[in-house]
Each structure stands twice: as C-alpha cells, then as structure tokens.
Amino acid sequence: MAGLKARYGDGLAVVALAVESLEGGVRSTANSLREDILWAIADGPTAQTFGNITAVPTMFVFDKSGRRAKVIYGAPPDLHEQVAKILDKLLR
After folding, report:
1. Which has more confidence, 85 or 38?
2. β-pairing, 68-73 with 58-62?
3. pLDDT recorded at residue 2
4. Could you give the dihedral angle defined by the CA atoms of residues 77, 24, 47 and 68, in that order, rounded to the nearest 10 degrees?
5. pLDDT tens digit string along 53-63?
6. Residue 52 exposed, middle or buried by CB count within 10 Å (0-12, 13-18, 19+)
C-alpha cells in the first residue's frame, strides 16, 4: 500500500492486525516496510469481532464515521487500484 499516507495525508489511518503470527516475524515485517502503519498482534477472538475472515489477507476499509465501507478478501492483482478508488470516494 505504498504511498497511501503521502497521497491521503492525515485523513487516513492504516492499522495491521497480525493473527496467528509470531511476534518476531511481525516485528521484522513492520520494520522492513517504510509505511506509516500501526501494527498490533491480535488473537483469534479479537480478529473475529470484524466478522468471519475467510482469506488472508483481508482488508477492511472504514469511513470517517467508523462504519465498514468495504471488505476485500485476498490480494487481487488490482488491489492497489481498488483501494485507491474506494479511498478517493471516502476521503473527498
């Protein structure tokens, strides 16, 4: 999701929840990415509060009011384009 903060500024927050991942691997991934992403390690029940996650990764996009605007399952080839279109609508 390179450059999202540069494109959308403070109107965007990105939070990554790692589930069933070892802390060392999560820290390594977080340190290797040059993104302004908040990382947390979540247990299964916490992840399930978002709904039935059937694919990894699963991306939840929320609007400014905290309502779920879109869920994207997996990593389709046009993921970045899909996300950009959604955010353009939400952050106008």
Report:
1. 85
2. antiparallel
3. 55
4. -50
5. 878 888 889 99
6. exposed
* Residue 63 lies in domain: 4-90
CATH number at residue 85: 3.40.30.10
Q: What is the pTM of this model?
A: 0.76
Strand partners, 41: 18
Specify the number of domains making up the chain: 1
Rounded distance between C-alpha atoms, residue 62 and residue 73, angstroms: 15
**In sequence order, what E strands does 25-77 have?**
37-42, 58-62, 68-73
Residue with tokens 């978002």: 50
Dist CA 19 CA 73 (whole Å): 15
